[in-house]
Amino acid sequence: MFPNLFPTPNGQFGSLPVMPIQAMTQQATRHARRVYVGGLPPSANEQTVATYFSQVMAAIGGNTAGPGDAVVNVYINHEKKFAFVEMRSVEEASNAMALDGIIFEGAPVKVRRPSDYNPSLAAALGPSQPSANLNLAAVGLNPGSSGGLEGPDRVFVGGLPYYFTEPQIRELLESFGALRGFDLVRDRETGNSKGYAFCVYQDVAVTDVACAALNGIKMGDKTLTVRRANQGSSQPRPEQESVLLHAQQQIAIQISVYLGLVLLMLAVFLQRLMLQPPATKVVCLTQVVTVDELRDDDEYEEIMEDMRTESSKFGIIS
User: Fold this and answer.
1) Name one GO molecular function term (predicted).
2) Which of 56, 78, 210, 253 is an S-S bond match for 176, by CB 3.0 to 4.6 Å?
């Protein structure tokens, strides 16, 4: 009736196959030990990726599981040019997050958490952020750019006007607290903003408040989309409602003041033009816009329309 409980002909008791404890542990932690590497060049293969990331991890001091290579396995999707790189430990995988943007075979690659990464489960397995002691300069990376931009408190900021500079965006976000990390995504060839960014607040308690206050705000002809990058949008807790209301009021005041200053400057400029005797039928406006603002076709048309509207208040434009 229970054949596995009786001796076999060689004198050994039969038993059901049992997965080794080490294998069970590896399977349970795999989602937190793997990193996604995107944007690989066509020449990449499993061996070159494994060797490169093992060497880089050693160079920045990211190995914490003892001597040897940090990478234990690599899977590459050649068609979509990405790989899953499996590390020996959860801590080493978190340290690898600081390698985002590193140059591999002449091309910058993206280093992210895989889609099956579970922040809640990973929190009990080891550090979820890269060590602050990594020597990123040894591999040509800037420690202050995108390091520390992983985990459940990573914020996506979309719908940014293309002419917004990095200091302007940071000033807006820092209305709610200091940033631990910030990354404005730029076009690889032109270096221009692609209209979205990521950030992480030093005080993660303000994350939901900032997301709720900034999400949906109008910026010119665009609307901001601000939410947690990994978990989607979430609502603030009841005790945060008064803080949220105050934050929204402060943002509205800042935007009103900014727009008011722009209109005032334009009115003063046009008034000065009226006081000057007309020398010709052609009016030349200088220092009104920057070169970067004229690169975007939609932005150019909007500027032209604004100029026509304001100038037509003082006479017929031919």
Assistant:
1) RNA binding
2) 210
C-beta neighbour count of 15 within 10 angstroms: 8
Cα separation, 194 vs 184, in Å, equals: 8
CA–CA separation, 238 vs 235, rounded Å? 9
Q: Phi and psi at residue 163, in whole multiples of 5°?
A: -85, -5
Closest CA to 37 of 90, 101, 89: 101
Task: Specify the pLDDT at position 215.
Answer: 92
> ∠ CA 130-136-139 to the nearest 5 degrees?
135
Please say if the pLDDT value at position 216 is more than 70.
yes
Strand arrangement, sheet containing 71-77: 71-77, 82-87, 34-38, 110-112
* Nearest alpha carbon to residue 182 among 215, 143, 211: 143
Distance (Å, whole) CA 28 – CA 42: 32
C-alpha to C-alpha distance for 185 and 193, rounded to whole angstroms: 6
* Residue carrying the six token digits 């937190």: 32
In this structure, are residues 196 and 157 in contact, taking their beta carbons and an 8 Å threshold?
Answer: yes
| Cβ atoms 169, 197 nearer than 8 A | yes
Q: What is the pTM of this model?
A: 0.45
pLDDT of 135-167, one tens digit each? 888 887 765 444 456 667 888 899 999 998 888
